[in-house]
Amino acid sequence: MGEAIVITSGKGGVGKTTSTANLGTALALQGKKVCLIDTDIGLRNLDVILGLENRIIYDLIDVLEGRCKIHQALVKDKRFEDKLFLLPAAQTADKNDVNPEQMKELIEGMKADYDFIIIDCPAGIEQGYKNAVAGADRAIVITTPEISAVRDADRIIGLLELEENLEAPKLIINRIRPHLMEAGDALDVNEITTHLSIDLLGIVPDDERVISSSNKGEPVVMDPSNPAALGYRNIARRLLGESVPLMTMDKPKPGMFGKLKSIFSSK
Amino acid sequence: MKAQVTGFLKNIVNIKGTNKGLLIQLNDMASYTEILDELKKKVSDPALEGDAEVQIQLAKRHYSTGQLEEIKKVIHEHSKMKVISTKCDVVTVEECNRMIAERQSETYVGIVRSGQVVKAKGDLVVIGDVNQNGRIEAGGNVYVLGRLKGFAHAGASGNKEAVIAASWLEATHLKIADELETMTDELDSLSEQPEMECAYLHTSGKIIIDRLQELRFLRPQISTFKGGS
Asked: Can you tell me the ipTM of this complex?
């Protein structure tokens, strides 16, 4: 019996979709059977980041409205044998065309076939959010070291904590820029976790190649030498129950900056 | 037999001079119309000159708000006197319940996050942080064992004596009774390390922040312990 995880943030543009794609891929790399569900109906992106745009035939709405069977709508990622699947969102409908009960039923029915079902939540706290959260067993909140993102994360955590069927939400801090944190120009990891007071699942450094790989349709996590990929791989291992120490990037030791620089400039 | 009047009060309406102005005592055994007639007669007396301030003593009788307005109207229309307060020895069950509720304390354990509102009729104790855009509201005092970084409202039902106290007072907004203060950088009362502080409504009508240790001098009535050893 698999586990359904919703990836949410409140604020837009903090990396929900990128994180969904990368965590899903990382779990598939670990040999788990994963299905990603894009619930951002009307503004779908997950398919693009995974490079599966051209293979979509049916979508979430088609499944919910009975125009096709689930297996017909699922897009298989050929890079991972039978490990990674995508249920794309509809582009020609909107968030009000789905209700939480439908989502719950759908996900409940899929759990037996997968180890992980990862639900990509749209930004906001309206219908789209409610649909995305309905079928989930646990939630991951994504934030960046910006006050606005942390404020919205706080709001979304408050809402998630009201959901009776959800485990306590966990936090991912995305797009960390070590030099800004060290200089005190960005919130540091400790400040964010104390403020939100939920468990930290992991941190992901900011890296340009996240963007370039997303544009190519190859999640960055496939490149094991990339620091952001390492962040996502660590998080995936923690989801599987391993205890992995937090990436060291915020220790202002002498000579550390040089080390970091060498890490980040390596290919 | 004439109705037995309580205490020393033999007249239906009694006017007395005190060092704080005039005192009008209304007999609580007389009928309401009798009181109004007698009051009109007494206050119209040209011997009562000047624009004295008067207090009305209602004794053990409940008057409705409309009746009180009528009594004040009689006084204001037939004399230059100004009613500054009314004092009544009885309360309705409704008022009594409200007073009990306001004296009680409720406790919330957890974080008040953005968009959440926690309300209490009486005092409110929050054990945990109140984050930005989180709101706590109490009819009585607000105490936060944690960081108060959001919006706190004390004395929500009008109690100007209510206070807001927190282990870390870094609120964006403070409100006591109807007075709202936005905690902008321009306020000189803000400290760098807002640890163990309290906010109260100063007699000037402004919200002032002080050290928590000052509370026992500022609002001694909050303490429910009498005496000491």
From this structure: 0.79
